Amino acid sequence: GAVVSQHPSRVICKSGTSVKIECRSLDFQATTMFWYRQFPKQSLMLMATSNEGSKATYEQGVEKDKFLINHASLTLSTLTVTSAHPEDSSFYICSAAPRGRDNSPLHFGNGTRLTVT
Amino acid sequence: KNQVEQSPQSLIILEGKNCTLQCNYTVSPFSNLRWYKQDTGRGPVSLTIMTFSENTKSNGRYTATLDADTKQSSLHITASQLSDSASYICVVSRSGGYQKVTFGIGTKLQVIP
User: Hey, which residues does A92 pair with through a beta bridge?
Assistant: First the structure.
């Protein structure tokens, strides 16, 4: 079945540093990938939509200069948390869907637990 | 406002018992509804997906129902197992592609021996 790989699964960084998270679709092409943030006991919150070859679309309240998204190929999107602060500590998840199949399930990565100290 | 509400928020059941989770939505125009299972610290995994014309869909011990008129869906789990302990998330999509999805907050299910 369709697999989305997310790396790293866990990262601890110091305040002020930047962290890059990768999301790869392993066996399908994804024109669009999505990045979410999930706080404990809460649902996934869409942060941004990553579009291959163009700028990402950010949800209201999400700082695009802080959460840099790059979707350089049909199988890879990256999220960089710049100048991380403790309040950025969260569970970040990406998802993707096979290109051209709007009614197929979204396939999620296994998430990245970010802890900023 | 497009919303997805799930109930109960949490549920504890004995292993082997059945349970039903509810999802009510106000998303419009409706495209499809998905149920996902999310283990703690992992990404969600799709269980079922239903479009407007589908009333019931099964995936092993999971059976989802959809009433598009009342905008309600349920997920029934039969003969629960300890491995069913997870959060179950209802996700409703509006017409227009993946960008227009609304997530429910999920129901946290705990199956105990």
Answer: A37, A112
Residue A33 C-alpha from the chain's centroid: 8
Predicted confidence band of residue B99 (pLDDT cuts 50, 70, 90): low
Chosen for mutation from A44, A51, A113 (greatest number of chain B CBs closer than 10 Å) is A44
Residues of B in contact with A103 (CB under 8 A): 31-32, 49, 51
pLDDT in tens, B20-59: 999 999 988 888 899 999 998 889 999 998 988 899 999 9
Closest CA to B49 of B58, B61, B39: B58
Helix and strand counts by DSSP (H, E) for chain B: 0, 11
CA A54: distance to chain centroid?
Answer: 16
